Amino acid sequence: MRLLVTGGAGFIGSALIRHLLTTSRHQVLNLDALTYAGNLDSLAPVADHPGYRFVHADIRDRRALAGTFADFRPEAVIHQAAESHVDRSIDGPLPFIQTNVEGTGTLLEVTREYWSQLAPPARADFRFHHVSTDEVFGSLGKSGRFSEESPYAPRSPYAASKAASDHLVRAWHETYGLPTLITNCSNNYGPCQFPEKLIPLMIRKALRGEALPVYGDGSNIRDWLFVDDHARALVTVLERGRPGETYNIGGDSERSNLEVVEAVCAGLDVRRPRAAGSHRALITFVADRPGHDWRYAIDAGKLRRDLGWQPLETFASGLDRTLDWYLTNEEWCQRVESGTYRGERLGVVHGTT
User: Fold this and answer.
1) Is there a catalytic annotation at residue 158?
2) Is 87 a catalytic residue?
3) Is residue 216 left, alpha or beta, with left meaning phi > 0 and alpha meaning psi from -120 to 50?
4) Global pTM exceeds 0.85
5) Considering 135, 229, 262, 299, which one is annotated as catalytic?
6) What's 2-194+224-253+291-313's CATH class?
7) How far, in Å, CA of 302 to CA of 306, rounded?
């Protein structure tokens, strides 16, 4: 298939493209605006692959999108382009509305116009796969897990923008018949993740001997999904999912934030021991983030039962792979950190108590 992947220079997008080009014969066009978290270095292993192309464009640019569709003639779209960091959405919510809502709407309209002109067999085979998050469902208590039927209850600007984009995709399916698929995933981790996210941020700060900030008492819980397992799930849904359906993707690896940071510290104690003792001594509890959802947990039973996917990595094995990658890719990390982000605290609402 000819696959148009938006946001393919980002963390999950680049993992997906690397997976596609090394395990299949699909042709991939990566369309990315290369904002702060987009990094073509993450695609270096496949940059010269004959089945790979790159277009530098923004999903809000209707003319650029239309030209790309006309030139590449995709048989499916995997929509990953998004502003994706909760703390950053608290600092400045408008870019999340502009990219995640306006950009998705623009992409849907260009896709619909292209799709409607295809021959009937090609229209039936076409897919628009929208990649979303479990954060659209809000916060869980001590029990239960999010399913595909869970009501939406977003509590951050980021989550609200992704919820809006999910609703747009469903509306284009119901109103126009566009063959859409939606996946909602749990927290991803793994190689090539921008170091504003918890695990790489803790790794990089610990290696520099800096304080490791943990929000509140560290009891907030997330389900963790290794990014390569996510990439396999996305391909599974694209190839075998039923149009109009939603599939949840989770790693069955619930951990509190404190447990995650302590696991990072334990791994670094083995790999890069500190003369001053365990990296755990760097853990510092800081004021909680506004609207911090207490717990997320994904029920991926539908994906397992209907499509036969399951994660290959445990949290322990995935974290080992992640730690080893960051410790052997210092140059990548330095290039990423040479931009405007320096590991500072984001997501503080100033002027409130």
Assistant:
1) yes
2) no
3) left
4) yes
5) 135
6) alpha beta
7) 6
